[in-house]
């Protein structure tokens, strides 16, 4: 539809218009400028909605859109019915049948600051003649919008928003999402047919796991949770959809047909009432994070407060949606062709920006893998200045076709790790340089090696300085031996001074010498000494994790620690006996064997033993108050609403219980969160397994556990 030349031309035009919009005057509202802006927006919509591959940052797009609105306001006679301000963007694909929505699915009007909200409230006052409007403020989920139709209490259709009038029929995929009930008793509320709207998303941790898996499988990671959600909905194989851990929040009743004898339901008089109804019908709704608020000043305050909690939520939100609560008032206000007048999105600060790729640094990890890290022109994203971005491995660089000197689109989604979405290849001028991968380790100079089927180049010199340092840093890190006072900075300093060479050296540090270093007083030396001494008593699983064996994360370290009496026993475990352990596959087993058969590593373990580190199997802490789960086995499945999975598992272990990795007759309790899948089905068939909700588990484990009230 748009060829390379047109694309380049449109992007240059976009740049020019953005610069104009930036310099206050906004240029002349002449016919040509208006046509230009429209052309650029249509192009951006196509890239975003059809190609799933945007070329502009969201805030650039939004700037252009509001520029067009301003220009049209000044020259209303130039508004045409096909202007992007007059309709919703195109978003139909050919892969699925197209279906009509019962009521058009509109977009939202956007606001970016208090002034916009105050303006809106003023207009609301004059439209309704009411001076104290009650609002509902709910999260603006950053996912993919869906529409569901229920008839006679059964889900009959699920569709994407498409162009707002018609969408893709994705019913088979929708049925894979376990937070969407296949039946819902609408008839209890006198409703025969209903079209409800909501958003499908992928939790941040599910997204992270999903991407880690992709990297391990040598596939490029997906850009962000939103793309992952919208891409997932349009997958051709519904079983794949089921595996993506999608969740759906429903927040809108777009249309309903009452049963003949229906009375006026209270639930159908306000937006909040409808959310309560949907919640009661078994849907996941934004209710818990929604506030009924009177007065726009209070709404503004809530928006700011909610923005500070943004990163605490398990999924991405990009703003707050404010809705007039009373349906009678909503009716009075009506809608434009683009958005309802009774709702307004308050957008949080953008987390995308464009920058320049200056150079690539190749970092050597503790296992020797070489990670390319992009150094970019520092750019603020979501309150943090981003200057380096990991590019994971060579394949990712090749797949994105990055070049030094490229203008790149950088995003920092909910997690703190920023990434490069893509280069804006259209902005190249020919001076960009290809990225060359080193053939030799940038630190020790040894030749690099790449195993067949892997994407990471590796330095296999065990004495490579970079690896030694990274291993030391990992060893003392929080989830490993947790020697806080011996942080990265100290390790680098001691190493460069020759005071520390290897892991056992941590326990032989010359504290007298350290005391003579600048910045070290008696107090800090004592602290350091004590912290090092204290770490000797860390449980075995922490020590195993701290050793930095490839593929051995915290969970596997625990499994290994449970499997032996003493650390040296691991040297004698065969591959077969390792494979018998929970969650250990051939890759992990191979790596464990390789580690323990290496004489250097064995020598290190011997020294650690001599130095007095605890190398015996973890014994449950003898805290009498917390033995209440002694001897019981647990497994968690689905998404927990209150606890992180790791927190829940730690609770069980602290109270003497054990975590199993699969459903079997050995399992006592299966704790079921949202979207539980095959494990739940399997557990239902084994009579001895107790199936618990998260709440029931919390009651059983620790009465009065804290809950986060901002979570759904
Ligand atoms: N980068 C680009 O080139 C490009 C191109 C097109 C669009 N975009 C981005 O997409 C945006 C426009 O997309 P849009 O029309 O989906 O609008 P939007 O994302 O600004 O907001 C509307 C959508 O919010 C969703 N939503 C989430 N929570 C909601 C809630 N609680 N209540 C109601 N709705 C809720 C709905 O799906 C609704 O369709 C632009 O502002 C821009 O950021 C970017
Ligand atoms: Zn090296």
From TrEMBL:
Its cofactor is Mg(2+); Mn(2+). Its EC number is 6.5.1.2. It catalyses: NAD(+) + (deoxyribonucleotide)n-3'-hydroxyl + 5'-phospho-(deoxyribonucleotide)m = (deoxyribonucleotide)n+m + AMP + beta-nicotinamide D-nucleotide. The active site is at residue 140. Residues 624-699 form the BRCT domain. Zn(2+) binds at residues 441, 444, 464. PROSITE patterns: BRCT, DNA_LIGASE_N1. It comes from the Bacteria. One of its GO terms (molecular function) is ligase activity. It is an enzyme of class 6 (ligase). Keywords: DNA damage, DNA repair, DNA replication, Ligase, Magnesium, Manganese, Metal-binding, NAD, Zinc. Pfam families: BRCT, DNA_ligase_aden, DNA_ligase_ZBD, HHH_2, OB_DNA_ligase. NAD(+) binds at residues 58-62, 107-108, 138, 161, 199, 323, 347. DNA ligase that catalyzes the formation of phosphodiester linkages between 5'-phosphoryl and 3'-hydroxyl groups in double-stranded DNA using NAD as a coenzyme and as the energy source for the reaction. It is essential for DNA replication and repair of damaged DNA. Belongs to the NAD-dependent DNA ligase family. LigA subfamily. This is DNA ligase. It comes from Compostibacter hankyongensis. The gene is ligA.
């Amino acid at each position: 539809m748009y060829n390379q030349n047109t694309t380049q031309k449109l992007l240059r035009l976009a740049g020019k218009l953005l610069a104009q919009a930036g310099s206050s005057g906004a240029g002349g509202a002449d016919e040509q400028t208006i046509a230009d802006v429209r052309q650029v927006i249509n192009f951006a919509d196509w890239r975003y909605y059809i190609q799933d591959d945007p070329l502009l940052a969201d805030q650039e797009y939004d700037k252009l859109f509001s520029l067009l609105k301003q220009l049209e306001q000044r020259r209303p006679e130039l508004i045409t019915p096909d202007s992007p301000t007059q309709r919703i963007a195109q978003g139909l694909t050919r892969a699925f049948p197209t279906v009509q929505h019962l009521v058009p699915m509109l977009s939202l009007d956007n606001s970016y600051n208090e002034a916009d909200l105050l303006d809106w409230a003023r207009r609301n006052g004059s439209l309704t003649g009411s001076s104290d409007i009650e609002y509902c403020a709910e999260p603006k989920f950053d996912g993919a919008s869906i529409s569901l139709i229920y008839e006679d209490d059964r889900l009959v259709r699920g569709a994407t928003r498409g162009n707002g009038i018609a969408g893709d029929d994705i019913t088979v995929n929708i049925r894979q999402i376990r937070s969407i009930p296949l039946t819902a008793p609408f008839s209890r509320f006198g409703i025969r047919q209903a079209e409800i709207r909501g958003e499908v998303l992928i939790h941040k941790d599910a997204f992270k796991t999903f991407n880690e898996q992709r990297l391990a499988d040598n596939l490029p990671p997906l850009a962000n949770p939103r793309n992952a959600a919208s891409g997932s909905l349009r997958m051709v194989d519904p079983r794949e959809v089921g595996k993506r851990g999608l969740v759906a929040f429903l927040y809108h009743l777009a249309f309903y047909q009452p049963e003949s004898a229906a009375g006026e339901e209270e639930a159908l008089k306000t937006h909040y009432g409808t959310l309560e109804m949907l919640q009661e019908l078994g849907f996941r709704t934004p209710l818990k994070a929604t506030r009924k608020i009177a007065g726009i000043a209070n709404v503004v305050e809530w928006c700011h407060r909610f923005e500070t909690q943004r990163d605490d939520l398990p999924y991405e939100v990009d703003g707050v949606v404010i809705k007039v609560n009373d349906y009678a008032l909503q009716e009075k206000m009506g809608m434009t062709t683009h958005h309802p007048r009774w709702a307004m999105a308050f957008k949080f600060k953008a987390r995308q920006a464009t920058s320049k790729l200056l150079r690539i640094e190749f970092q050597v990890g503790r296992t020797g893998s070489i990670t390319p890290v992009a150094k970019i022109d520092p750019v603020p994203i979501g309150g943090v200045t981003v200057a380096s971005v990991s590019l994971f491995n060579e394949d990712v660089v090749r797949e994105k076709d990055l070049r030094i000197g490229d203008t790149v689109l950088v995003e920092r989604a909910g997690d703190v790790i920023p990434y490069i979405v893509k280069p804006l290849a259209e902005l190249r001028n020919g001076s960009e340089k290809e990225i060359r991968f080193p053939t030799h380790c940038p630190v020790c100079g040894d030749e690099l090696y790449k195993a067949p089927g892997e994407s990471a180049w590796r330095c296999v010199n065990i004495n490579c300085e970079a690896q030694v340092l990274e291993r030391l840093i990992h060893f003392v890190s929080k989830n490993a031996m947790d020697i806080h006072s011996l942080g990265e900075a100290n390790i680098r300093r001691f190493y460069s001074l020759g005071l520390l060479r290897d892991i056992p050296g941590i326990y032989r540090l010359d504290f007298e010498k350290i005391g003579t270093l600048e910045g070290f007083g008696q107090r800090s030396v004592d602290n350091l000494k004590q912290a090092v001494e204290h770490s000797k008593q860390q449980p075995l699983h922490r020590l195993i994790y701290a050793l930095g064996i490839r593929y051995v994360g915290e969970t596997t370290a625990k499994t290994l620690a449970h499997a032996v009496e003493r650390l040296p026993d691991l040297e004698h475990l065969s591959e077969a006996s390792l494979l018998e352990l929970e969650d250990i596959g051939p890759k992990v087993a191979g790596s464990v064997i390789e580690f323990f058969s290496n004489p250097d590593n064995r020598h290190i373990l011997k020294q650690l033993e001599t130095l007095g580190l605890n190398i015996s199997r973890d014994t449950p802490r003898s805290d009498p108050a917390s033995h209440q789960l002694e001897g019981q086995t647990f497994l968690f499945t689905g998404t927990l609403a209150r606890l992180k999975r790791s927190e829940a598992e730690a609770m069980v272990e602290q109270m003497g219980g054990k975590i199993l990795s699969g459903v079997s007759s050995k399992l006592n309790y299966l704790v079921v969160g949202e979207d539980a899948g095959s494990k739940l089905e399997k557990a239902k068939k084994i009579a001895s397994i107790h199936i618990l909700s998260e709440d029931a588990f919390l009651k059983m484990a620790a009465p009065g556990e804290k809950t986060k009230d901002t979570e759904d």
